[in-house]
């Protein structure tokens, strides 16, 4: 546990550099690449999820301390509910029954 | 409030029962924040193409400024990591300096966001212009209001650290603030990806 809880600072740099790379890569993919739009969506979505994971585990210390299981399970559950709220709402409001 | 030390083998912020419970409690609050922002993303997802007589996203988004905002917030999240690193090394001065650097990047982000809002209003997109404008500015504004709150919170904690040093009481508070600050970067990653980049496709 001690190696995880005593932040060395190396993880910070790794998380930061990866975050910058993913940010600029996403911008490049959207503005410069000639991929199909659906492919662009898929790639930048994956980049966003990786970046969020970096923040949660490398910066927010989610998986440390005695309560780590409670923190991880509760947060993952909230993310799951959030995904249902977002995609459920968009689906209900746009699929087959337009509001306009 | 009494914060009795119960365990010396873990970082200072986990040493008292109160500190440990507050950190767990804050994670439960973060879950509520995830749902709050999820509802705002859902709103934007539903309404983003309802532009009425106002401008559409690609007509008003300035992607260069948004990338700068993203880098500012990402950097502030990075420097915020060193607040905890310094604190766990017992370096109170370092922790305060890193908080100050973090807040300066956060302030830079906020100034740019306010300019962005002024630009939108000048371009004919206000919160009452269209469903797109309402959902966009509610999402961005809620995030910006959180950043503003985090700025004042950070200033107050830096003062308390200077006065009391790193104790089980102050360390858990700083840890909680750092969770909050990183969480705002997580939200911004999704704003950046799905609102701005998604809007340009």
Automatic annotation (TrEMBL), chain A:
It is found in: Cell membrane. It catalyses: 2 a quinol + O2 = 2 a quinone + 2 H2O. Its main location: membrane. It is a multi-pass membrane protein. The chain crosses the membrane at residues 12-31, 43-60, 72-93. Its EC number is 1.10.3.-. Keywords: Cell membrane, Membrane, Oxidoreductase, Transmembrane, Transmembrane helix. PANTHER family: CYTOCHROME BO(3) UBIQUINOL OXIDASE SUBUNIT 4. Belongs to the cytochrome c oxidase bacterial subunit 4 family. Catalyzes quinol oxidation with the concomitant reduction of oxygen to water. This is Quinol oxidase subunit 4.
From TrEMBL, chain B:
This is Cytochrome (Ubi)quinol oxidase subunit III. Residues 1-200 form the Heme-copper oxidase subunit III family profile domain. InterPro entries: Cyt_c/ubiquinol_Oxase_su3, Cyt_c_oxidase-like_su3, Cyt_c_oxidase_su3-like_sf, Cyt_c_oxidase_su3_a-hlx, Ubiquinol_oxase_su3_dom. The chain crosses the membrane at residues 21-46, 66-85, 92-111, 179-199. It comes from Pallidibacillus pasinlerensis. It comes from the Bacteria. PANTHER family: CYTOCHROME BO(3) UBIQUINOL OXIDASE SUBUNIT 3, CYTOCHROME C OXIDASE SUBUNIT III. Belongs to the cytochrome c oxidase subunit 3 family.
């Amino acid at each position: 546990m001690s190696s995880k809880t005593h932040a060395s600072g190396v993880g910070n740099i790794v998380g930061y550099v990866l975050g910058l790379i993913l940010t600029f890569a996403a911008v490049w993919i959207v503005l410069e690449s000639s991929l199909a739009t659906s492919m662009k969506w898929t790639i930048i979505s994956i980049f966003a999820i990786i970046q969020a994971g970096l923040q949660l585990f490398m910066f927010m210390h989610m998986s440390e301390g005695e309560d780590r299981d409670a923190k991880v399970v509760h947060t993952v559950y909230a993310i799951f509910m959030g995904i249902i709220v977002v995609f459920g709402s968009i689906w209900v409001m746009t699929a087959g029954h337009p509001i306009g | 409030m009494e914060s009795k030390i119960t365990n010396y083998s873990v970082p200072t912020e986990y040493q008292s029962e109160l500190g440990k419970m507050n950190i767990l409690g804050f994670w439960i609050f973060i879950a509520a924040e995830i749902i709050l922002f999820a509802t705002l993303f859902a709103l934007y997802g539903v309404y983003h193409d309802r532009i009425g007589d106002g401008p559409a996203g690609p007509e008003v988004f300035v992607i260069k400024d948004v990338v700068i905002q993203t880098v500012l917030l990402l950097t502030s999240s990075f420097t915020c990591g060193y607040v905890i690193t310094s604190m766990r090394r017992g370096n109170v001065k370092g922790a305060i300096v890193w908080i100050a650097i973090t807040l300066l990047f956060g302030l830079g982000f906020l100034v740019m966001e306010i300019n962005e809002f002024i630009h939108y209003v000048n371009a004919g997109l206000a919160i009452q212009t269209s469903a797109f404008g309402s959902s966009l500015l509610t999402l961005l504004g809620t995030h910006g209001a959180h950043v503003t709150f985090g700025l004042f919170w950070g200033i107050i904690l830096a003062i308390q650290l200077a006065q009391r040093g790193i104790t089980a009481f102050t360390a858990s508070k700083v840890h909680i603030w750092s969770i909050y600050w990183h969480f705002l970067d997580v939200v911004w990653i999704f704003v950046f990806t799905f609102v701005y980049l998604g809007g340009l496709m």
